């Protein structure tokens, strides 16, 4: 269609003027029409590129005090660190709160871009792209002092106890694959606190600070009644998990990692830690 229009215009130009003038105008028309097309093409390309790189990153996670939660200032220390790192790359962010399993499913199928605050596992790496580590969390086994133990000598020494653990979590490879342990799956850390104090489980595997925070929020509970068994299971780094279902997943990972390196270098990272008391 556009080709026919061009021929029609060139024909009318040649008919309206002397042949020599018509040929000159025809050449000028062809030159400038190509330039106009190139300008339009480059403008669209830049607009599309800017849209990709300045996209609002849709983040999802669950409440996990004291590291991040809808009830904490700015969403908590991890949320503020992550936002600052993304902003260095020119990305605004949104953060929504869901049950943990749902948040992971949303990112898996592309209705969210990022799961904020996750442990690494090889199984998860098949589904998501991982950032560089952003934070470290002490994970261990917690019991009531009345149980009468404060340490353990290998996981085999815990075979006689019922251990509560959170659904959808990963701990350590050794612990996760220890089928000889009596494990009871719990829906969340609030339920874990209640189950331990009610003596429905003997031990809970959890983030130490998260468990203590939840115990403190339950006014009738006292974290002085609990003991963290030695040794810790792990000091586990937290990551962002990026959806592989979005087209620019790896570019977002790269942008975030560079932003995180930047805020570590210029002191912003430590300022945010200090602000939140870490």
The CATH class of the largest domain is identified as: Alpha Beta
- Poorly predicted ranges: 1-19, 36-53
Number of folding domains? 3
Number of helices: 10
Provide key terms for this protein.
10 helices; D-Maltodextrin-Binding Protein, domain 2; globular; 44% helix; disordered N terminus; 3 domains; 10 strands; 278 residues; alpha/beta; 10-stranded mixed β-sheet
Explain how this protein is built.
The protein is an alpha/beta fold and 278 residues long. The chain has ten helices and ten strands. It folds into three domains: 2-50; 57-136 and 236-275, Periplasmic binding protein-like II (D-Maltodextrin-Binding Protein, domain 2); 137-235, 3-Layer(aba) Sandwich (D-Maltodextrin-Binding Protein, domain 2). Strands 1, 2, 3, 4, 5, 6, 7, 8, 9 and 10 form a ten-stranded mixed beta sheet that branches. Helix 3 (77-88) links the parallel strand 1 (57-61) and strand 2. Helix 1 packs antiparallel against helix 2. The N and C termini lie far apart (66 Å).
